[in-house]
Amino acid sequence: MLKDEKAIVVFSGGQDSTTCLFWALETFKEVEVVTFNYNQRHKQEIECAKNIAKELNVKHHLLDMQLLNQLAPNALTRDDIEIKEGEDGELPSTFVPGRNLIFLSFAAVLASQVNAKHIITGVCETDFSGYPDCRDSFVKSLNVSINLSMDKQFVIHTPLMWLDKADTWKLADELHALDYIREKTLTCYEGVIGDGCGECPACKLRKNGLDHYLRSQQGADK
User: Fold this and answer.
1) Is the predicted pLDDT of residue 5 greater than 90, yes or no?
2) pLDDT higher than threshold 70 for residue 94
3) What pairs with residue 37 in β-bridges?
4) Annotated binding residue 134
5) Residue 18 marked as a ligand binder
6) Which has fewest Cβ within 10 Å: 42, 67, 116, 219?
7) What is the DSSP letter of 114?
8) Residue 20, annotated ligand binder?
9) Does 124 belong to an annotated binding site?
10) pLDDT value at position 222?
């Protein structure tokens, strides 16, 4: 039974990972979170993750992954690179090559140290912006590779994999966490907590999903 087991959540303090954290707290007996410092553009992300972990009373691990910043210059690690969506089949400027590969691998190493079998990540193929390391096939492949490399039986969970942003807000609401996630999380590429700047691609995706979900609820209440 999952209620008797322990999990690690890969945690940025954003909408998706915080929804996953609430899901994990409902699903597992014990939950810890891990945040990666890769010298990202906005240090508020790390502070936001720390604050949420403290408020929800979960153990928080912060790992230094600044080598990723050195290897993968992009709009999330460089102030002088413009945030823009991918055009003509190109990846968005916010794609960090190898990020989820590295994060999940290190999360597994941590999980082995704290005796956690389950690893949760908020990647999503429905609204994945073209990021190849958010695909279900990647996660399943990596799960097999991690288990073979460490001779373990980890299970990587992706509660949001087939949800669009409206469905993610619906899940948050079902977990009685919609207002908390709306007010306390940081999704904005400009580093604005809550509803964000309203202009960057992350804010637009988040807002469109929320608006769609709230409209659907209003229709259901009529």
Assistant:
1) yes
2) no
3) 64
4) no
5) yes
6) 219
7) T
8) yes
9) no
10) 58
